[in-house]
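Why does this matter for the project? Reviewers at the last site visit asked to see concrete outputs rather than summary tables. In response, this paragraph embeds two records directly. Each consists of the residue sequence and, immediately after it, the corresponding structure tokens. Nothing has been edited or filtered.
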Amino acid sequence: MRKVLYPGSFDPITKGHINIIQQSSLLFDEVIVAVMSNPLKKTCLFSLKERLLMIKDIYKDVNNVSVLVGEGASVDVALENECNYIVRGVRGLSDLDYEMQLAQINRDISNNQVNTVCLFANPELINVSSSVVRELFKLGKDVSKYVDPIVNTRILEKKGGF
């Protein structure tokens, strides 16, 4: 059984992330989405628990996608969950250089047990990121075309029905 871990902060999960999960679910027997805390982010739109519950709700009817909260290094979460692969979404050349470095480090610290697979989101989703969605939210803009309806509902609730 081929299992892949898709780690990220997913604050919030976007249609770009969803596209990567969809592609992964066609390539792997099981996709484990690991909602990770990012210590570099000073403020979050959603708590870890809120993110976990939203993503679980989005994938409640998809048999080969599961969701968990991951702690520590992504490669350790992959090994703990018997994943020999980590999937990463790449939006452009600037992402690719970083992802290549990370892939090599993950392979090294896992003693060659975990490989990284990079996937590209559909072209219309290349510019969609959680940080863009958060910024648009702060500016009072409509983000519905960038996120799943479940996430959009939660964003509107955060805004008090805006």
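We now turn to the second protein, recorded in exactly the same manner.
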Amino acid sequence: MKNVLTIAGSDTCGGAGIQADLKTFSAHGTYGMSVITAVTVQNTQGVFGCQDITPEIISAQIDAIFTDIDVSAVKVGMVSQIETINAIANKLEQYNPKNIVIDPVMISKSGFDLLQPQAKDALINRLIPLATVLTPNLPEAEVITGMKISTIEDMKDAAIKIHKMGAKNVFVKGGHLENDATDILFDGKEMLIFNGKRFDTKNTHGTGCTISSAIASNLANGLSVENSIKNAKDYISIAIEHSFSIGKGVGPTHHFYSLYKKAGMIND
């Protein structure tokens, strides 16, 4: 079994952040570990507060994992402060894990700033160059590139621009477009398009965290970047299709639907 580490924030209601990451790792047959960067106050209706973990404790958490356990892949999620970004980048450069998936979490669905505006340059200069795969959605890609993205061609241009910032592979997620869920992957040479079905549900809390963790899990299990993304797309599609209507707002996806179905716990 491969070991996969998430470096991200904690989500009170369990649909996103490290909770979603650990569920996704388990669903892919990998052993999940976590470094907590922040504790958020949130539920299905929004994010209402955040307490950042000190850079010293973040660094110590990373040391604790890498000095003891073999890490096959790392997923980086919510990193809100310049000091947090620098601490993580320093440790990733020190330990140099083979696979690093970075989900540049910036704004919650409810509009809460999860990345402080002044930290954008640190994200671009320190973390993006370390990414085996970078997984921005359209609003995140717009912030990173400074361009407006409203078409597939815009997504391609953004992927090229972000690749020049140092990410080995740029996976631009098109879920915010009006059409079906079309995503773009650019590896510096080839532009691949991944088409996906859009489901009529509001319950999409944690989809970005989940698909990036699925990609990291697949990379840890030895799949290529392209196949890791294909499998992750299939996984998140099933999770969204069978998402949960809990709470009064945007519910979470179903991380274990396929496993529960195989175990006979679900009858469609």
